[in-house]
Amino acid sequence: MRAIRAHQREQQRSPAALPPNTKQQKVWTAMRILRTFTLADLAATTEVCEKDCYRYVHPLMRAGYVAATRERSLHRRVYRLVRNTGPRAPGVRRLTVTDRNDRTVHQMAPRRSPRS
Q1: Would 5 be classed as within a structural domain?
Q2: Domain that holds residue 70
Q3: pLDDT value at position 75?
């Protein structure tokens, strides 16, 4: 029990600890640097495939972290980071996005139904 409390205190003292080097963290860091980007831009700068970039960016868009702009670049959708909360990448779950910087949980907007 003492070890757990000591670990919790240590985490509270060092909020600037380096985030892990995961795919999501690489994509998040690239989005923070680029501000406006395409999936191809993220894939090129992070060495993460476009499909994995999409799997991370799309839920962030549904949670309000990223917005799609009206402009296009070489027939690709252009995105813009609108909620930059800090260096740690938000965690994406099935229906929620957990922000590790401000410790909040955001619900994703419902998916649009396909046009009939």
Answers
A1: no
A2: 20-107
A3: 82
